[in-house]
Amino acid sequence: MEDLIKKIKSRLHLRPEAEEFLYSISKEKTLSKGEVLIRQGQTVKKTFFVTSGCLRSYCIDKNGKEHTLLFAIKDWWISDYIAIHTDELSTLTVECLTESKVIEFNAKELDGIHARFPEFESYQRHNLERHVVSLHKRILNQLQLSAAERYDLFLKQYPDIEQHTRNFHIASYLGITQQSLSRIRVEKVKK
Fold first, then answer.
1. Three-state helix/strand/coil letters over 18-70
2. Mean pLDDT on 146-171
3. Are 53 and 30 in contact (CB under 8 A)?
4. What residues does the Cyclic nucleotide-binding domain cover (predicted)?
5. Are 52 and 74 contacting, i.e. CB atoms less than 8 angstroms apart?
6. Which CATH code fits 2-119?
7. 89 and 95 in contact (C-beta within 8 Å)?
């Protein structure tokens, strides 16, 4: 929890009572590789801040194909925000790719922090803006860049992730087949 508190304090003055409130609505958890935090089709009430490890969110389409939406590493948040904010059932599964440590929050309680501590509004708005920018960049990259260029950007964004994840996770994140990923890697070695 100290990492999250430190991160928050780097952006705003955190009153002791606000810090106490964060501790009161959170649980630190150590999770095993393969553990599932959210399953597609369930109600979602939790959001998670990653303090170590690697998690991913993905969906399975009607043909049974997996599509990786996000990898979450240290200092990233992960959940199914569509399910949380629309009260629909989850369209995503969130699983641990490695042993991981997270801070679990009830999403509604965390969202209510603004009413008690208005200074959090700017912090949360900043996080939301970063998230929207990240999603927009991802969409634009999928539309405008070649698979090889997307792979290069992926390696910059997640420099050590290949040791923690399977090829089909990376390929599904990039929107390509595992065979295409293998070809891209062979070409990179040749250069």
1. HHHHHHHCEEEEEECCCCEEECCCCCCCEEEEEEECCEEEEEECCCCCEEEEE
2. 92
3. no
4. 29-114
5. yes
6. 2.60.120.10
7. no
